[in-house]
Amino acid sequence: MSLVSRLRGRVIELKSDGELDAMRAAGRVVARTLELLRSRAVAGVSSGELDELAEQSIREAGAVPSFKGYQGYPASICTSVNDQVVHGIPSRRQVLRDGDLISIDCGAILDGWHGDAAVTVEVGDVPAADRELSAACRTALLAGIEAARPHGRLTDISYAIEQACLAAAARDGREYGVVANYGGHGIGTSMHMEPYVPNRGRPGRGPRLRPGMALAIEPMLTLGTEHTEELDDGWTVITVDGSRAAHWEHTVAITDEGPRVLTVL
């Protein structure tokens, strides 16, 4: 789940190797749940049904959904369809159709530790531009992960994400909107912690990356504007021009050996 602005606290939580292993266990729950949802996100299925599947998957693993009840959020996952960027609320009334693009954001708490990840899923036959948008966003995520190395600076991640987006735009022959008002965050004993992780910016700024830090890295791209607005439900964020959006995310640990992705199978 993305973060809109910097948190008030300034303490960045550092984890031991054992604590990162515990986060890895929570991350596997998230990864398994997202893999299930990717297979079930087909035309005719509602986002509400996906939410029910997610909660069942998380609880059967002995974990608890991070999102449900968080600041009043009513569901276990976020399902953002087409022009919805992040924080879309699942509903039985929202039925997926062929050609939709859905971003699914999932979090789980296991033994007090959080995992958080997101994928964008193509429903049936989507336009080529949507496939390229999702691929560009995922490539930006991977670039951000690669930059999450000890002794670097926080905005090295931001810069890597932005540069990957620019490279993808040049390759695909279009401009992608890099959503600036939302970004990643520290994670561990809470879902949202310091530091805030922007998705663009100059390198070499912000806190130094240290082993034991864990970050949710999550670029969001659009096929148009970078500008967004929040709907009256108080959660769903959409593009102001109606362009489609993609969102990819992993929880990543900074280690002496390099980045360790915690939300993979």
Keywords:
single chain, 265 residues, alpha+beta, Creatine Amidinohydrolase, 5-stranded antiparallel β-sheet, 4-stranded antiparallel β-sheet, 4 helices, 15 strands, 29% helix, globular
Walk me through the structure.
- The structure is a single chain.
- The protein is of the alpha+beta class and 265 residues long.
- It has a single domain (17-261), classed as Creatinase/methionine aminopeptidase superfamily (Creatine Amidinohydrolase, Alpha-Beta Complex), CATH 3.90.230.
- It is 29% helix and 25% strand.
- The protein contains four helices and 15 strands.
- The chain has helices at 17-40, 47-60, 128-146, 154-172; strands spanning 64-65, 77-81, 84-86, 101-110, 113-122, 177-178, 184-186, 193-197, 214-217, 220-222, 228-230, 237-239, 245-247, 250-255, 258-261.
- Strand 11 (228-230) and strand 12 form a beta hairpin.
- Helix 3 runs antiparallel to helix 4 (154-172).
- The protein starts with 16 loop residues before the first helix and ends with a strand.
- The mean pLDDT is 96.
